[in-house]
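Subject: Sanity check before I submit

Could someone independently write out the structure tokens for this chain? I want to compare against mine line by line before I put it in a report. The sequence has 667 residues.
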Amino acid sequence: MHIEVASSAGFCFGVNRAVNTVYDLLSKGKNVCTLGFIIHNPQIIDDMLKKGVKIVESPENASKDSILVIRAHGVTRNVEENIKSLGLKCIDATCPFVKKIHNIVANTSLNEDIIFIAGDKNHPEVKGIIGHCNTKFFAFNDYNELLDIIKKNKKLSQFNILFVAQTTFSLRQWKSCLNLLKSNYKNISVYNTICNATLKRQCEAEVLSKKADLMVVIGGKKSSNTAKLFDICKKNCSSIFIEKIEDLQFDEIKNSKFIGITAGASTPADIIEEVKQKMEDILKNNEAEQGEDLNFEQMLEESLKNLNTDDEVKGVVVGIAPNEVYVDIGRKHAGFIPVAELSNEPNVRPEDVVKIGDELDLLIMRTNDQDGTVMLSKKRVDAAKGFKEIIDAKNNNTILTGKVIEVMKAGVVVLTNGIKVFIPASLTTDFKNKDLEELKNNEVKFRIIEVNERRRRAIGSIRSVLLDEKSTAINEFFDSLYTGKLLKGRVKSFKNYGTFIDLGPVDGLLHISELSWERIKDPSEILKIGDEVEVSVKSFDKESRKISLIYKKDEDNPWEKLKNDYPIGSTVEAKIVGLTDYGAFANILPGVDGLIHVSQISKKRINKPQDALSIGDKVNVMIKDIDFEKHRVSLSIKALLEGNQGEDFSKSIESNGNKENSENNGE
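---
Independent answer below. Compare away.
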């Protein structure tokens, strides 16, 4: 009998945060009201009620002297505004992942966007999401409901489609619905808002239920995410859905050899442990009762069995020597395990594998009645068991862990559970030309991709696990992004249009225009390869995994300096940096150029700017107009000339030139 609990079973981050918020307020002696059930778990709710928490259906029902806590599922915008208008003390315990969906659907255009929401429209979380929508929306719970919506609304293809999901929506349903939307609409923005904890919990339930005889799913009957876990499990094996330990029945579990346990996001850890403990007690008592049925004759016959080669026996370690291990197998013969039969790992020391008192499963290799000894093997029993696990791992796509014990040109050999698995060089890393020697004696994660049962050989892939981990890291990275977020990275490479910044999971593009407020011709004028930099997020696209970055700082914005220090009418010295048929461009501040229209260059009529100006000339100009939104500045030389009582343009240029020469000559 084996019981295995899914590692992600139980409270998720959002639920834990909401529950702790309430208990923290209670510990400080506060009067607490929750707007609806804080989470979908009757045991937690009952405990809170006993401690004085009041559950109200609307803000109007909350007392003025209490603190109102918004549930983890979130509420509509109208409810949030109502709470403010009533002047209630309030703590918003909405899950941050749900808040993210609220922000997405709120930033939509009334006449241009349509929102599709994958989720149960009667669930509090989906009701809250709907309450933040600015435009028309459709909520659906599965593929068929979505298909019906599409068929009944033929004109939706002319709109921009936004697709979001309830945080606990089924991953399998999400993928099928996404394919359906993409096949019907071109202008679609996809936001995979199923939270990472939900994805992990569903994937673990899928894998565990394929290995188990029975799955026990624990959680509130009204919990949407627990119900989805139950749906996943029951497709793969016999499954039961319980809310508390009293729901567990002996007859449901007594014949199971492998029992898996998973639990919804609102299930406390102590309930999971309580259920596991009760099942262990039930199954132990059942085994004990069955053991008592063995009669004396059966036990006597067992003890007198002949020690035949290839028989499996149990032995207890009684001594350890450098070259062999001595074991008591409960017979008159003395048992020993040569070090070569102890483990498949080369150069292993016996004391690193076993210790005195260990009980081992062993295979009889040879019996010597004359000497009264039995030679035994541990590694062959381990290999037999290990190879079954290898087959199961291949069938279930399970990730295994092992140690790299050998490196060769063609690949590496990994030892796991006494079995050697070959991993080709092309499947060892997530990028080419890595030195395989770096892997030697290291623990690695891998999957089994091919098994030859007849020859007991297996081939694995480290690369597939690394790529999955990388994909997960990228998804988590993008889920945490928002416009304006500050990130730290390292300059990776230069292009003529910008530089790529290594942000860890992905690279971001820092366009040359976002490097400096001044005009530059090459990114290397500002940065060098390997520099650590702080950048902000300009924009990003999770689907294409692209990020645009900004390096220049707002406080260095020359347009702000222009606004503060150079009002319209100001006179400044400018340098001519460009000439066109209609005017000249002059630099008045680093990063700010203005246009001197041809009509504003001289009091005399000139046909083209080149008749009076050259690149590099320094002239005095008046700021006539500034458009800060479009970053445009209108300049005039003529206005200054008219104010100088008839000084002509050539004298203005000459004056500046003489001044510059004087400075150069040290006058």
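---
OP: Matches mine. For the report I'm noting this point. Residues 269-291 form the longest helix (23 residues).
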